[in-house]
């Protein structure tokens, strides 16, 4: 998929006369390719959509050193923050500095956030620590998401800032645990985590949903992702987005979101439809039909920028650029 | 109302050539009729809209045996879950198994969810238990809502799953108590419950609003229902829906939603307008004018599928089918 | 700005034939002018947009007597509520009656709402009380917001009702503290408050955002306001509204909302664009371009009522009238 998009975008770049800055695009494209490693959690999705040569590997992501680095970096950030803000030293000590690993800190932090008077913090910690500890891929996914937030959200000032406070980041991590429990048929527990995450973070992800790595849920309030939805790698989704089903019958009824897609705030994507890799969907759109790869769909109902027959192709990965508005000029009926 | 819709839909079925499967529709229609009992809480609304022969009665709903059955079923489900997931046995014991009645369990569960350091759990329990205990109709409404969720939401795996975790279900039950307090002029208490429900569940229902029975608030985050809004029986409302007012003057200023209506995610219905029984409103729509019964309104601003003069009539109850997308083909300007 | 709008609206009133009731408008206009005092927190914004004669002063707002009065009134309301609802007497005592000042009560109430097991209530109280105590303008802003809610929201029955329970009001007050900390380079603490407010109230306001006085966030769930956004005085914003950025590059990237603007539920305003003073934006709109002062923009994408070339000018301040629907007749393609 990565290679495919990379190749296509080069072609597209030539087709539209090379008007866009070549250097910027190449930089983006390289990052584009680098990130397209199939994610174990969404293997089926990858198999379905991956019809080209295998994508480049994220070599640096899998080494123990990289894992070490990010956790060490977070401890460093926490120390600095605690020093500058002594009133929070207890908070940083409990949350980060007294913890011995990224996964331990995450299990503790999620337990603190999600506990209530009938769900003791210890019970929740045991659940999170148990699942994270048994999953070698879990830490890699946590790291990929932390990097995604830090790189794409200009309002994120440090890894520890994201780790401690970003609702979207924390909701996805809790979801990964719930998804693993769901796979093991521990449905009651998985659904309980879903419900607590929905109450505490306002993010409602069914434990059956498959979410890739390097995913950013920005602001996150009101996001709803249904049971049979699939979200690829390196996707950016804003708050208030629904990946919803239709009908009261079970079965495969939710959207499949390709790698590198950007979905703007308040958008509804409904039904078992595919949003192709590298596509962009504008804010407050309603999408009820397939969106081809690397196109831009906007409006209610959504239309393709450039027209249905020959839609304009994006040459930059929208989830990385986070560009929500550059399509205005081509949105013909915009008359303000 | 039920009879009316039933009759009309048969006619409509013939009019459009009987192309839809007759058996499926009849089953739906029977359930349609069966559910149309005027709800005590929205009696005025029923009186206003009910111009035909009286609807069929929900006989089985009012017998003590049926009440007993659902609670027994929930205890059974809780026992099974606790057995399969010993880490949650304390949670199920406190929430369900140690409780002696459905209303007691509900009062306790709402108190657990809504308490904080300045609102002790005991105070809240006394309030909820008091109102639920004095209201013979309360348990019937709780049961109708539990059944609505279980029957219409394919992601709901058991009554106890809904009871313990569904924000929309819990928000409606807390609202019923707040509404009763509001009717008794205990406004400060009613508004306090509204505020806590808005904080904890992200659902903001003014205690003055009248909500029928058998109502599903799916996902529920971001739902806002104003003071003079009325919601009929057997309505399904998705997350992010606003039944809002207009203007700063008090008085009757919010929408009236008929029985069996389905409202998609993110939709705004504003002003004192009527949405007729059995109508469907698509996701992210903006509805500022009356929507006739059994029609489909979609878009921003909303339009009627089939046109204003001769709108297509639905022959199935949209809140039961939960079909959010079958109108695409008729949504003419949808060009993806 | 106030004078400007005042003058213009008189002219506009003549231009459109004086069909609107003169007396009502004059009353509104007087209040319009009365409220246009530059807010210290958004001085830069004021300086940029203020090209006319200086606005009238809010004399009564700055006197100690007025400050005293509102707090005395709140204590009176709390006493009455506690008397009528003895079950809540402890709640009212802790929250209001045992407090010695408005700012003390606010610091305590925010600490109660935002604390959790890793952020003790005492720590949060010290932070809020410290900042509020050092800021002579803080109490004035709190009062202006309380008055805004009470005057514009017909569902608000008393100051103490708003103070104790309105998520939007509490989120703005917590934001004011976070903004002051942000200005003092105490970023970790400011961002922590942002995150807790987003979790507890579902309102995500970056501490860098500049918010004026007399602002109403009605219902508030799902509101997102970005780092470089500016919101003028006397603005009314409904729930689900996004003042969002575009792109992954930092810098000035969020909307600037003028004084007296009304933004309907679920609307997205994206990018560094200006919404002129006294403009109205309909519910569920998508605004990606500048909206001129005192015009009405509605739809997805938003259009100006009256057309781009000669848009209809409002003669009443939309944030005060809270009129969300009177533009229907002019919204030409609305066909229901």
TrEMBL record, chains A, B, C:
Q: What Pfam families does the entry give?
A: Hexapep (PF00132), SATase_N (PF06426)
The name of this protein is serine O-acetyltransferase
This chain's source organism reads: Linum tenue
* E.C. number: 2.3.1.30
Q: What's the family?
A: Belongs to the transferase hexapeptide repeat family.
Give the superkingdom in one word: Eukaryota
Pathway membership, UniProt: Amino-acid biosynthesis; L-cysteine biosynthesis; L-cysteine from L-serine: step 1/2
Q: Name one GO molecular function term.
A: serine O-acetyltransferase activity
| Ranges for domain Serine acetyltransferase N-terminal | 70-174
Please name the SMART domains in this protein's record: SATase_N (SM00971)
């Amino acid at each position: 998929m990565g290679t495919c998009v990379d190749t296509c975008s080069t072609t597209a770049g030539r087709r539209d006369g090379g008007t866009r800055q070549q250097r910027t695009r190449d930089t983006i494209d390289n990052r584009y390719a680098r990130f397209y490693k199939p994610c174990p959690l969404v293997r089926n999705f990858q198999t379905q959509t991956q019809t080209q040569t295998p994508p480049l590997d994220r070599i640096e992501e899998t080494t123990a050193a990289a894992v070490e680095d990010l956790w060490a970096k977070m401890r460093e950030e926490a120390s600095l923050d605690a020093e500058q803000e002594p009133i929070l030293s207890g908070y940083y000590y409990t949350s980060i500095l007294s913890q011995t690993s990224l996964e331990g800190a995450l299990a503790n932090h999620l337990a603190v956030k999600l506990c209530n008077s009938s769900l003791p913090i210890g019970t929740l910690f045991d659940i999170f620590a148990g699942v994270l500890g048994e999953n070698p891929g879990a830490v890699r996914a946590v790291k990929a998401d932390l990097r995604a937030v830090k790189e794409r959200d200009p309002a994120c000032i440090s890894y520890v800032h994201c780790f401690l406070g970003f609702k979207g980041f924390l909701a996805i991590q809790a979801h990964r645990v719930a998804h693993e429990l769901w796979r093991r048929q521990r449905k009651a527990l998985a659904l309980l985590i879903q419900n607590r995450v929905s109450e505490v973070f306002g993010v409602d992800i069914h434990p059956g949903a498959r979410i890739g790595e390097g995913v950013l849920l920005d602001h996150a309030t009101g996001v709803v992702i249904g049971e049979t939805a699939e979200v690829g790698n390196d996707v950016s989704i804003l708050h208030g987005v629904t990946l919803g089903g239709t009908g009261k019958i079970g079965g495969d009824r939710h959207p499949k979101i390709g790698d590198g897609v950007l979905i703007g705030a308040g958008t509804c994507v409904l039904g078992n439809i595919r949003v192709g890799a590298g596509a962009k969907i504008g804010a407050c759109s309603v999408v009820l039909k397939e969106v081809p790869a690397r196109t831009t769909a906007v409006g209610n109902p959504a239309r393709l920028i450039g027209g249905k027959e020959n839609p304009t192709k994006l040459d930059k990965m929208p989830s990385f650029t986070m560009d929500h508005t550059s399509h205005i000029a081509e949105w013909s009926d915009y008359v303000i």
